Amino acid sequence: MLESLRSMDREILFWLNGLGSPGFDTFWVTFTQIYTWIPLYLLLFFLLFRRRPWRIALSLTLTMVLSLLTTLLLTNWVKNSVRRLRPNNDPEVQELIRILQEPVDFSFFSGHAAFSFCLTTLAVLVLRKDYRWIYTLYLWPVLLAYSRIYVGVHFPGDVLVGALAGSALAVLAYFLVARRLQTRA
Predict the structure, then answer these.
(1) How many domains does the chain have?
(2) Could you give the C-alpha distances from 128 to 18, 48, 136, in angstroms and in order?
(3) What angle do CA 67, 72, 76 make, to 5 degrees?
(4) Residue 130: how many CB atoms within 10 A of its CB?
(5) Which of 22, 49, 96, 125 is most exposed, with the fewest beta carbons within 10 Å of its own?
(6) pLDDT at residue 119 in the model
(7) How far from each other are the two terminal CA atoms of the chain, in whole angstroms?
(8) Cα–Cα distance between 141 and 44 in angstroms, integer?
(9) pLDDT attached to residue 178
(10) Keyword set for this entry (predicted)?
(11) pLDDT at site 74
């Protein structure tokens, strides 16, 4: 069963990574950088402060930051426990894919996917009543997750589990803290 999942993961990697072309490489390498998205993070915090009393908004911001730190810690712990090679370092696949980045740490699960889905899910849960369009924000983590496959540093299973882990941590943070803060606003 595990081997058939790994085989399917590799086949999907070959297909998704193979969709790339040199004309789009610079775009996806830039897109995959977390720092590229600082304006988006600032926009989310602006939207939060715009509709909430500053103490509530500050508490919600702290909740988001702590959720993201928890996500990063969990991601690093799992990566160092599972120790799955990234596609760019895996001798079975590295010669068969396009590689645009070459990190040397482990692959499972994707920190980019976990981080972006955690932030997006928490932002959507907190801001959904204020901004109906906020659900379109999910386009960002979906494309960010794809970018990790495009540049050759994650298997599809890595980004899928990262997305689920980040979303789950956001829902947990929302129900433990953020929802209660919102009722005070």
Answers:
(1) 1
(2) 36, 11, 11
(3) 150
(4) 12
(5) 22
(6) 96
(7) 49
(8) 14
(9) 64
(10) Membrane, Transmembrane, Transmembrane helix
(11) 97
The tokens for 72 are 């990063």
Structure token digits, residue 158: 């890595």
Cis ω before 109 (30° cut-off from 0): yes
Measure the CA–CA gap between 162 and 180, rounded to whole angstroms.
26
Cβ proximity of 78 and 105 under 8 Å: no
Provide the residue type at 67 as one letter. S
Residues 6+ apart with CB under 8 A from 43: none
Domain limits at 47? Answer: 2-184
The pLDDT value recorded for residue 51 is 87
- pLDDT of 183 reads 60
> Residues 6 or more apart from 171 whose CB is under 8 A from it?
121, 125
* pLDDT given at position 155: 97
CB distance 66 to 173 below 8 Å: yes
Q: What integer pLDDT is reported at residue 37 of this predicted model?
A: 92
From CA 184, how far away is CA 132, in angstroms rounded? 21
CB hemisphere CA count around 157 (13 angstroms): 16
d(CA 159, CA 113): 5
| Cα 113 from Cα 145, distance rounded (Å) | 5
